[in-house]
Amino acid sequence: MNVRRSAAALAAIGVLAAAAPATAAPSPKATVPAGLFGKGDPTYDGVWRQSLALLAQHTAGEKPADQAVTWLTGQQCADGGFASFRADTGKPCGGKGAQTDTNSTAAAVQALAALGGHEDVTGKAVTWLKAQQNKDGGWGYSPGGPSDTNSTSVVVGALAAAGEKPAGLRGKGKTPDDALASFAVPCAQKGGGALAFQPDKKGELEANADATAAGVLGALGKGFVVESGKARDKAPACASDGKATPARLADNASAYLIGAVSKSGHLMSAMPGAENQPDFGNTADTVVALAADGWTEQAKKPYAWLEKNAAKWAEQSGPAAYAQLVLSAHAIGADPHDFGGTDLVRALDKLGPAPAKQAAAPEKKATEKSGNSVWWIIGVGLVAGIGVGFLFSGRKKNRP
């Protein structure tokens, strides 16, 4: 669900070779349009980062700016899909124009479905997504491309957010659950329980933490925003006996993730060419995945690590990174306004159009019992007001 997932898909089709960048680096040729979050080149992640930013704001209780929402809806192509970025929305998609992809489309659907009031846009996008389902039940990044765990999972989340029942969708043969099960590494093998991004050229499955976190949500039929599942006491273990249900797949994948973060509290980057360094984004995804599957206690360790270490990463990476952290905080019931001393929501807001101001709650009028009581209430209010004034004044003076 994260910016690395988008980057991983792009790398898989030869667009990016570097490891897991957050937001694309600024380009002298790139013009960042009004309404879009972030200042970096939006060519490869414009719709993705916008969708996550709007979703995070909404999840944090804010109303995104109309300008930001309009920018996103305006990116939709005539066929209902979304491309990663359309610099000129007057030009048609396809051909030499912007190319639609399942990841951007699914992200946009999740954001717009959460905001509500965009059924015309999400309806066309859902129809487009259904038409891209492969015979194996999954989805690839590009229409007609081979299925992968990440794309399948983000589409499942989008369909669920739009009110569909993706588990039973078999447009061309098998279901999404069938596809995800085919990517699961057998328990007896190295990385057992994890999911692969795709089988390699020999058909072998290699554990991929990013795909595994995505696969948990896909198996559970959930999108980017999750509420903590009912807390479960006993930590999961990879099990292959009995029926290979989606719930079993999710538990096996969770067992792998718990083991991966058990020592250090974080995952390591596994992208080709990347330095051996902590993977902040996939660690945030792990928090969301574990919380969604009910392993809330196990999710607290990687979240605590993020609180201590991820603020600088988000600052350097941009809106999608801040959004990921907001969503991970939400998943375990933490306060995104107090993330190791950083207000994630405020930091995200600064990178795009200011959210709409919430309507103030109407003040309750005091009931007048007698003239004396009314003046007594007014007097107390004046004294309290003076005290509050000094309090806020002190806070401003002490504010760094």
Automatic annotation (TrEMBL):
The keyword Membrane applies. Keywords: Membrane, Repeat, Signal, Transmembrane, Transmembrane helix. The keyword Cytoplasm does not apply. GO terms for molecular function: catalytic activity. Residues 1-24 form the signal peptide. Residues 50-158 form the Prenyltransferase alpha-alpha toroid domain. The chain crosses the membrane at residues 374-392. It holds the Pfam family Prenyltrans. It comes from the Bacteria. This is Prenyltransferase alpha-alpha toroid domain-containing protein. It comes from Streptomyces bauhiniae.
